[in-house]
From TrEMBL:
GO cellular component, one term: cell outer membrane
Domain TonB-dependent receptor-like beta-barrel: 369-739
Family: Belongs to the TonB-dependent receptor family.
Highest taxon in the source lineage: Bacteria
GO molecular function: siderophore uptake transmembrane transporter activity
Organism of provenance: Chitinophaga silvisoli
Protein name stated in the entry: TonB-dependent receptor
Keyword line: Cell outer membrane, Membrane, Receptor, Signal, TonB box, Transmembrane, Transmembrane beta strand, Transport
Localization in the cell: Cell outer membrane
One BP annotation, GO: siderophore transmembrane transport
InterPro entries, per the entry: Beta-barrel_TonB, Beta-barrel_TonB_sf, CarboxyPept-like_regulatory, Plug_dom, Plug_dom_sf, TonB-dep_rcpt-like
UniProt KW Metal-binding keyword: no
Amino acid sequence: MKLVLTSILLFAVSICMGQCTIIISVKDAVAKTALSGATLSLPALQKSSITNEEGIAQFTNIPGGRQQLKVAFMGYETATIVVSMSNKPGPIHLGTDTLANNTGSDKSGTQSGKDTLSPYTGGNKSAIQSGKDPLVLYTGSDKSALQPGKDTLYPRSDALPNHPVNDTLFILLQPQHEELEEVVITTTRSTRTIQNIPTRVEFIGGEELEEKGNMKPGDIRMMLNESTGIQTQQVSATSANSSIRIQGLDGRYTQLLKDGFPLYAGFSGGLGLLQTPPLDLKQVEVIKGASSTLYGGGAIAGLVNLISKAPEEERELRFLINGTSAGGLDLSAFYAQKFDKTGLTLFASRNSSRPYDPSNTGFTAIPKTERYIFNPKLFVYFNPKTKMMFGVNTTFEDRTGGDIAYIKGRGDGYFERNKSSRFSTQFSLEHGGLTIKNSVNNFNRNITIPDYEFDGKQWSTYSEISYHYKDWVAGINYYTDQFVEEPKANTLKRNYTQKTAGAFVQNIWKTTDWLQVEAGLRGDYVADYGFAFLPRVSGLFKFSDHFSSRLGGGLGYKTPTIFTEETERIQFRNIRPIQADSNKLERSYGANIDFNYKTLFFDRLSFSINQLFFYTRINDPLLLENTSLVNIRGYLDTKGWEINVKLGYQDFKLFIGYTFTDAFLHEGGMKRENPLTARHRLNNVLMYEVEDKWKVGLEAYYYSRQALNDGTTGKAYWTCGFMAEKLWERFSLFVNFENFTDTRQTKFDSIYTGTFKNPVFRDIYAPLDGFVVNGGLKIKL
């Protein structure tokens, strides 16, 4: 990372008893805003100071001569400058004379307070702007000969009111390399940088995605599971189907989006996590808490938006090959390039695994899997204001778990086979502030166990028209979800069609320099279920460059379907259909507040902390009672807090996260703990990174006891992992030791009751696959 010091000004300072006084102004090199709380030090004199709210700091009684000055601020490159102190003015009086009206070759003859140098007769006018650039500090070694295009003149110090014009040093700090490219958030529709958006958004960027991709290149479960407040819950012991639980709420309350399109809603959401490799993702944006105002129903616990890479001027071509000690193989390729008026991205992958049973239970901890994915996208740039995107997502998967002998062709034991296919289209057209979006999604899934078969198809569509003007966004959308079940003997047909029409408006209002407010309002009409009114408000409080806070809250809802974690666990067997006359919308409200503080200790140790408090309540939650899904007369609420601490020292970074979740179901004056929710969870990650050379990471995660659906309580456990990657210019080699403590639920608890041929599987709350080593090769051309 390269330090760029874009402006330095030093005047001849007044002398008192042989001592000097220096005033220093520190600003952001890009935004030109004052940096409050920057640390300045003169190591030889053991003096230090901190800039005030105006970015100003002062040193007094500084002896004449050369002194080394260090300026540090978290998120910026540290500046080290040699300052010369003198009471003798130079040939041009700094802070007084300007370069104008002197065409002579000897610039040192300027008379203080009288002469100006204009016009400038050099061949390169860019070095000095005639009549505009005042002289502050000339950096050339020969003061009598200004070299156009080489020497630099900086702004005069009297731009700062109430400060002497002959004793101020201006320093503009350049942001660190990793922050040079601003992180733009799109999930909230405002396309603002993450630092300036009132809604609390958690961001997982490209570098972190690559690191998590080293650990599990085939899907995004690990990437999400290692974030505080998020738990990926395995709902099938044999097929490994999983869902996202945010802050203790079931997976159906989390909305999973792809580029702002709800491609994983309803029936298609069951396998969404398992069928999304991370190689083609640019970033992941997570909003925790009620977010139905943004994209409609389903986002009660929050939403996860997977943002794909877009083509750039420079071609991107990547390959990934990964193998595991459990018999897994991942092959992925990604290509992106922008041409004159068009752009193209292509993503393809093949992921497979052999049946794996490390505990010798006879049942698969990792099912036999074969999956193919192909996602092409075309971009057309008609003009600077108009562009179009059309993409196709395809997935084909065959997954079989259960009796490992049966899967290998021996015996007639228990098995669960999932065959699925996904075909979806994405279309968007942007013209100025107008955006038109559409997606069509077809998802087919067949589940077979020895004496039962489930076969269903889903067609869903999403259409939206929105208009963005300054800080306002308004639009309308229409969503359809049709599920058709193939008739089987002795089964009820659970077919349904849901139609939702919605309208929304939102605005960001900068009330003062320290407060921004984002407010939104959505109205959805759900056929057969009525109207949902969904307000949302968030506020960003910037108390200083070190300390800020976000406060937000809103309403949410979820339309009932038969697809829940409870019904997925039993393959939807004997589940009765949803009835609009007896079932209703699950409605919620929630709020959260967080506090952020960051600073720099000892000029080199960066420190940041984020403290989040949250609360969500769902009225009339939909629960499984015998074979029917019923809206109970009660509520489910979850409350708690998350703490995230980040420490950085040279090439080391330490991340510590803690989540406390208190989730209970209240019914008839009684309350019981929401199952499969760890009350206490601890995340620890230590990273060592030498840029473009090495990445080494050590992880440790703790999960406290969890209540289970059968009335028992699971055991607490730790998991640990180690990852290393060696990088070269065009390729890298990586290895990952996942769960090297070999923590497995089968070591301290059973995973099924009943007989081996007719098992009844219990809740899965800990890993089943144990210690797995994977490694591979990444190529970038």
